[in-house]
Fold this sequence. Notes:
- The complex is a heterodimer of chains A (248) and B (532).
- Chain A has six helices and eleven strands.
- Chain A has 248 residues and is an alpha/beta fold.
- In chain A, the strands form two sheets. Chain A has a nine-stranded mixed β-sheet with strand order 9-8-7-10-6-1-4-5-11, sandwiched between helices. A two-stranded antiparallel sheet of chain A has the order 2-3.
- In chain A, helix 2 packs across helix 5 and helix 3 packs across helix 4.
- The longest helix of chain A is centred in the N-terminal third of the chain and has 15 residues.
- The N and C termini of chain A lie far apart (68 Å).
- In chain A, 40% of the residues are buried.
- The mean pLDDT of chain A is 93.
- Chain B is of the alpha+beta class and 532 residues long.
- Chain B contains 15 helices and 24 strands.
- In chain B, the strands form six sheets. In chain B, strands 1, 2, 8, 9, 10, 13, 19 and 20 form an eight-stranded mixed β-sheet that branches. In chain B, strands 6-5-15-16-17-14-18 form a seven-stranded mixed β-sheet, covered by helices on one side.
- In chain B, helix 1 packs parallel to helix 3 and helix 1 packs parallel to helix 7.
- At the A-B interface, helix 5 of A face helix 3 and strand 12 of B.
Amino acid sequence: MKILVGYKRVVDYNVRIQVKPDGSGVVTDGVKLSANPFDDIALEEALRLREKGVAEEVIVVGIGPADLTAHLRNGLAMGANRAIHVVTGDAVQPLTAARVFLKLIEKEQPGLVILGKQAIDDDANQTGQMLAALWDRPQATFASKVEIADGKATVTREVDAGLEVIEAELPAVITTDLRLNEPRFIKLPDIMKAKSKPIDTIELGSLGVEANDQLKTTHYAAPAKRSKGVMVKDAAELVAALRQKGLL
Amino acid sequence: MSERETMEYDVVVVGAGPAGLSFAIRLKQLKPEVSVCVIEKASTIGAQILSGAVIEPQPLDALLPGWRDNPPPICVPAGPDEFYLFSKSGARKLPLPPGMHNHGNFIVSLGAMCAWLAPQAEALGVDVFPGFAAADNIYNEDGSVAGVRIGDMGVAKDGTHKPGYTEGIDIKAKVTVLAEGARGSLTKQLVKRFKLDQHSDPQGYSIGIKELWQVPAGRVTPGKIVHSFGWPADTRTYGGGFLYHLDGDRIALGYVSGLDYSDPNYQPWEAFQQWKHHPLIKPLLEDGSILSAGARAMATGGYQSLPKVEMPGALLIGDTAGLLNVPKIKGTHQAIKSGMLAAEHLAEKLDARGFDARLRGSEVMAELKKVRNVKPGFKKGLWFGIFNAAWETATAGLSPWTLKNKADWSSLHKLGAQEQPKRDYVQRTLPPRDRLAGVYFAATEHDEDQPIHLHVADTNICIDQCTTEYGNPCTRFCPANVYEMVEDEGGRRLQVNAANCVHCKTCDIKDPYEIITWVTPEGGSGPNYQNL
């Protein structure tokens, strides 16, 4: 069985996000970019399934500009067998990403697609669900435990009320939650090995994917700053200040 | 336990700063067949680089002809230079000291510049590995340096192995090049082991604290360079501020304090924040926002403190050797030049021997010799320091004497041993409010469940002796509020908030009992600076 893993590059979670002064987006120049943490979890799960003998091949997929190669090499260093780089300079919305994955599925015929439940940049939480619908296959989202046997995935999901266990017939889409696993550290020798692993490059335009985005971003803005606190001497002054503001 | 995994290179470089990357680039240019790797503890190249920085471009011209057509992301040609003596409410404009003319230089972000250099090294075949900390030196049977050991990943705070535990590998090389920056943790061990400093003065250091601001449109004159001394420093403390106008309505500013200060109550971070409130600075920043902030020690001992820079199997380049030019307040050109010189040396033969003589015979050392007496003169106070600096500059360092440096840890006076300097400080209004608010802008990150990377040899000294003698200065010299004395059911104790650490190394330098040792945390930990 092949496993296809979505591997998105995002602004690192440690970076303080800054909105561009003209409100056209967030600053990404000179900013640390790294794998979406949920995608690292997805890749780790795929690698564990391969190590258990459930899968033979793990393929990481990235959609983005030419310099995404370095990021995909990290996925290969973690242990993926090969990578597919779908090249586009444009920002990709969930529906477009799902359509791209569908095209790759038709070509690769994977038994399982594992995606992060959401990317920490747009927090959309849509690609996995949309892909399952387009593909017309089962979905198991927010997975915190995955077992594969007899052509079925038994997935424990994190839901509001607690944990829910569902069975899905393969092929299927699984999206990962935070507690599914803890991704491994990359080892130096594996970085060297990753240099010789194949990365297939496909132009987004050549896939025949409709990329007319449904959503238009009008502008970005930073959250409003909290105004400064005022120190009061005693309770009387506090009461007076609250009165003045019409709060009492 | 199984045998530790090993990788072999001709040369391993510790640290992807300007020295290490220039070295790797130059060596590959001269000898493409030599295998070189660069190990960097930051999670990404440039994330733990902090500098002013106005740089002299000549070494870059020599290293990468044509770089001006493809400059680093932040690279503003130097404009007018201004030099001031500050008082609390005023400023006297002074003639520019000769070393501080910046015409022809560039204001850069050294972090962004390193991130720009790294791919150029990789294109030449250098393996650059960010996110891996060189935790230890390894040695051959004959005692020579054999390479470095990468730190283990996935070790819990109590030393046990967490589920993802990954043993660090050994990188073996014919020559190990230390380019760790000031007070490198491996260099420190090597200096001791090979007695590299037996014929030199102790190294001296300063701490630089820096912020990058986004300010409202219309205030910035790209290229303008402002330096000041005087307030908020008293005349016995060596300190000065810098403010560089970048493009895109950004300002880089910071404050450098000599770590040879004597007052145990001195707080370098507070001095910087005070300086920002000077009437010449504050109006530029008001209503702006901080983009990134951090701190780093730099070596300011200069000529007389330069240790021997070679030992069997290894050599030192850049600021871990200590090549910064204090009156110019520049070290990048020296770092690049020393890196190139080391590359030229190893291109002839992969052998560290002879590099010390080569460096001492080069213009890198000639430049340091000329200015060797400038910084030590300030030990005798500001006015003597200025007079002495003028003399040394006028005579181009031809004085027959060389002033001595002392170790910074030994310069603190005990509480009450000197009159408390009168610190004429103002009520602050600009952010950040305190060090914890400030460290947020360093985006520093350490997995809390890992061994504390700041080793305090004997915390009993902190509780009794240090409290009485110096009042626990670690709680004040640390710019990131890592050290706290707390009182709880167990009594008074030292609390080390290692997760806040920005890897500036000040504690390792300044603690008066020499009991704090900075070691590398898990690879990839530490600050994540943006364009510092």
